[in-house]
């Protein structure tokens, strides 16, 4: 009789701790808002360009983004990162990576890039990857890791196109929420 009581006691105890109905809420352990400014080389702006088309479809060229939603263009960049939306503000780091226009029927791109921060407030890198449906006002991409002050951080970056001038310049506001901080 005593063994049956002990069995049911431990069984009840085990079930009470394994309640799948209770969801744990996740709150960011760190938040950061930065801006990066992209100036695509267009054949006339070599002094100011921070990005270049390195791959184009057969009907395109390397100085003008292709027609048809820029499908097939591959762009690499080394953009300044600022704390505000002013292109002439002192950079706190560089956004380095690439984007690939990957859809024929709407403006969308695949992003893979790293923020390289080296200033008094932050030292280290933050790596991002994900799809960017450009026409959506606010979109999320994954923060997949980091180094230095951001060692093994993971989370979500909400990006918004803050400004653009044709096919040559755009500015993104990047609201980074880290959910794993070491």
From TrEMBL:
Stretches that traverse the bilayer: none
Gene3D superfamilies from the UniProt entry: Allene oxide cyclase-like
UniProt keyword Signal, yes or no: yes
Location(s), subcellular: Secreted, Extracellular space, Apoplast
Single GO BP term: phenylpropanoid biosynthetic process
Secretion signal, residue range per the UniProt entry: 1-18
GO CC field: apoplast
Keyword Zinc: no
Any single Pfam family the record assigns to this protein: Dirigent
Keywords, comma-separated and alphabetical: Apoplast, Secreted, Signal
Subunit structure of this chain's protein: Homodimer.
Functional summary from the UniProt entry: Dirigent proteins impart stereoselectivity on the phenoxy radical-coupling reaction, yielding optically active lignans from two molecules of coniferyl alcohol in the biosynthesis of lignans, flavonolignans, and alkaloids and thus plays a central role in plant secondary metabolism.
Family: Belongs to the plant dirigent protein family.
Full protein name: Dirigent protein
């Amino acid at each position: 009789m005593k063994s049956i009581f002990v069995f049911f006691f431990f069984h009840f105890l085990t079930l009470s701790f394994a309640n799948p109905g209770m969801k744990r809420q996740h709150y960011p352990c760190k938040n950061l808002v930065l801006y990066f400014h992209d100036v695509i080389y267009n054949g006339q702006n070599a002094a100011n360009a921070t990005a270049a088309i390195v791959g184009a479809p057969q009907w395109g060229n390397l100085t003008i983004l292709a027609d048809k939603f820029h499908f097939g263009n591959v762009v690499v960049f080394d953009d300044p990162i600022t704390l505000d939306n002013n292109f002439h503000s002192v950079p706190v780091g560089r956004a380095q990576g690439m984007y690939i226009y990957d859809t024929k029927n709407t403006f969308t791109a695949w992003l893979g890039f790293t923020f390289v921060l080296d200033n008094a407030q932050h030292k280290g890198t933050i790596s991002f990857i994900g799809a960017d449906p450009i026409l959506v006002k606010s979109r999320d991409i994954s923060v997949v890791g980091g180094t230095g002050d951001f060692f093994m951080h993971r989370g979500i970056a909400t990006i918004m196109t803050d400004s653009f001038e044709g096919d040559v310049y755009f500015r993104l506001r990047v609201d980074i929420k880290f959910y794993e901080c070491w």
